[in-house]
Amino acid sequence: MSRTPSPSRYADLTRAELARLVPELLLIGQLIDRSGMAWCIQAFGREAMTDIAIEEWAGSSPIYTRRMQRALGYAPAVEGRGDVVTIFKGLQLDIGAPPQFMDFRYTVHDPWHGEFRLDHCGALMDVEPMGPEYVRAMCHDIEDPTFDATAVATNPRAQVRPVHRPPRVPADRAPHCAWTVTIDESHPAVEPLAPYFEVVRSRAASLDLAPVDPDDEGLGDYAGPLLSDLDFADFSHSALVRIADEVCLQMHLLNLSFVLAVRARSESAEQAREICRKQLVGIAGIAAERLHRLLDLPRDAAGALRVLALHPLLNPAAYVAASVDPDDGRLDVQPSDAHADGAWISLCGPHDTSALQAAVRAVDARLDVEVEGTEDVWSARVVVGAAAAEADEVAVTRFSSGSSFEFEARRSLPIFPV
Prior knowledge:
The protein has 2 domains: 240 residues, no CATH class; 135 residues, no CATH class. The chain is 43% helix and 13% strand. The chain has a 4-stranded antiparallel beta sheet with strand order 1-2-4-3. A 4-stranded antiparallel beta sheet has the order 5-6-8-7, with helices on one face. Helix 7 runs antiparallel to helix 8. The chain is globular, with a radius of gyration of 20 Å. The N and C termini lie far apart (48 Å).
């Protein structure tokens, strides 16, 4: 017997606020790697970092891609028989391809043939200064298996192949890369990589979220034509809430896959936990900073608690059991599916306050947390103390241009076969 999903913590935001929030969450999800991979390079080296990235994305993206297809009503009528339009729609709602920061432009020739190019690749801008070896690792070694792993969620006979890609020759080549997508019955069927079969057993993978209300004003699905740029303001309040929750779940699934890959290479449980903790601290601070700025919240304890309530660390509510009492200035956390999976919340509590500190100090450097309780039942109060320096983990994540990226208004135009 399935239980009724917990109400979303995003439900009390306005439709306009949600329309601005969703692309922010997609970008935050992309920045998880900017936070985590630096520590993987330090611990294991570049080649191992590359393998971790492949396993991380390949283990999670087929799961969350299918979830979003079902949530927004564009899943193929027969599972595994989707077309290129379905693949492209999925990319537009994927933390691996946040809008504008990863500026995908699409061309559809027919249901089985299409192309995309990146007019701007924020990830490339972050990695290019590190040298051609790192660029090749991202744009060749990582992209080849992970693009196919994402496409397998729609059609296992889809092949994503480069037209050109970095390292850029000449150095200012534009677009940054270009790819073809071809679906052909003669192609050998792509199988998910091994991590997928572990992550798909997680509670996050099968989590029930409230369905979109079809009677809510605005678009309740993405069943219509492929659009050049999604205008999230066109979606209904109910649809935006579901998208926001799904995007947060994408982050958790990506992190669960990251944890598996890190554990497989760590010398001890302590080393694995420390790398995963650093990843969380970095993204916790940058995500909190961006959410605080987006919603123009006050720089006080109440503003910090509001940020925590909306932070991916604690969402979706159906996955992470937590409540915020703004009058008492307290966050309460209870055991949940997220604890059972070993998700981000399991790294927080009286045993470690660093991620919570990074989040509240993104609101104001004088804020801190006092936490009491047990490992999975605890309360945190936001308090005012002396100003603290930014955590090293947050500073590392801030090297990404995504940390300060600003979205622009764009027209949303339908894309038809050419």
